[in-house]
């Protein structure tokens, strides 16, 4: 939590937070624990389903199964198998991680 200490001191209960690339939901869970409402954006179908299951008993979280981008449409997401939180839809991103990656098509939206 150290890098977020200042941020966490400045929020007020009930405010809306956005978690872009919510992955395993750890950041979302921390924000909910602080009393915030959270819009969690997770483009991977499996990840979004896990988030919906994880937060099914709270109305504080809304999960959107989309990748946020500068345009709406469809994109290819590259996901490092060992580090899903390093996923990208940016084709110019060299995604310098060891190990294999998977690719799939995801819906994109502008925030």
Task: Give your account of this protein's structure.
This protein is an alpha/beta fold and 111 residues long. Helices cover 22% and strands 30% of the residues. The chain has a three-stranded parallel sheet with strand order 1-2-3, covered by helices on one side. A three-stranded mixed sheet has the order 4-6-5, with no helix packed on it.
Topology:
Blueprint lengths: L4 H6 L5 E5 L5 H8 L3 E5 L3 H10 L6 E4 L2 E2 L4 E8 L20 E9 L2
Please give a quick description of this structure:
It contains three helices and six strands. The chain is of the alpha/beta class.
Characteristic terms for this protein:
111 residues, 3-stranded parallel β-sheet, 3 helices, 3-stranded mixed β-sheet, single chain, alpha/beta
Portion in strands: 25-35%
- Topology pattern, helix = H, strand = E: HEHEHEEEE
Q: Give me the side-by-side strand order of the main sheet.
A: 1-2-3
Rg over alpha carbons: 15 Å
Structural class: alpha/beta
What best-fitting shape do the alpha-carbon axes yield? globular
Segments where pLDDT lies below 50 for 5+ residues? Answer: none
- Counting copies of identical and different chains, the oligomeric state is single chain
**Which whole number gives the mean pLDDT?**
91
- Count the beta strands: 6
Classify the helix fraction into a percent range: 10-25%
What is the number of helices? 3
Separation, N- and C-terminal Cα atoms? 26 Å
- What about the largest sheet? 3 strands, parallel
